[in-house]
Design a protein that fits this description.
OB fold (Dihydrolipoamide Acetyltransferase, E2P); 126 residues; alpha+beta; six-stranded antiparallel β-sheet; single chain
Length: 126
């Protein structure tokens, strides 16, 4: 199980990588392993501004569908187009090619409220 130290994490199993005021968001290695084989990623919120905790999309695995929750408030700037044809990238490279959205963070200080890798690791029992 992989828990990159440079990322922040949510209790809903999303990860956040900050680059200036832009955040790249995906689901964690733990989340993808719990879901199983991802067969579809649906994100139709590009261009929208959402509040922290709002649903920005969903992932469909063989046996379940799971909502995706925005880790901090902001505007969805880009959706990873590669996931339309290759949703299993979420399984094979959750912290790299399997990213889901890029967003402009409304308040950068909100990132500090997210879990660091050690806290997330404890949260999921590892």
């Amino acid at each position: 199980m992989n828990f990159p130290a440079e990322l922040r994490y949510t209790s809903e199993h999303e990860w956040v990588k900050i680059d200036g005021d832009i955040a790249i968001v995906g689901i964690t290695d733990f989340a993808q392993s719990e879901l199983g084989d991802i067969v579809y990623v649906e994100i139709e919120t590009e261009g929208e501004t959402l509040a922290e905790g709002e649903i920005f999309g969903s992932v469909e695995a063989v046996k379940t569908v799971s909502d995706l929750f925005l880790p901090v408030a902001g505007e969805i700037l880009e959706v990873n187009a590669a996931l339309a044809d290759d949703p299993e990238l979420v399984n094979t490279d959750p912290y790299g090619e399997g990213w889901m959205i890029k967003m402009k963070v409304a308040t950068l200080a909100d990132i500090e409220g997210l879990m660091d890798a050690d806290t997330y690791k404890t949260h999921v029992g590892h």
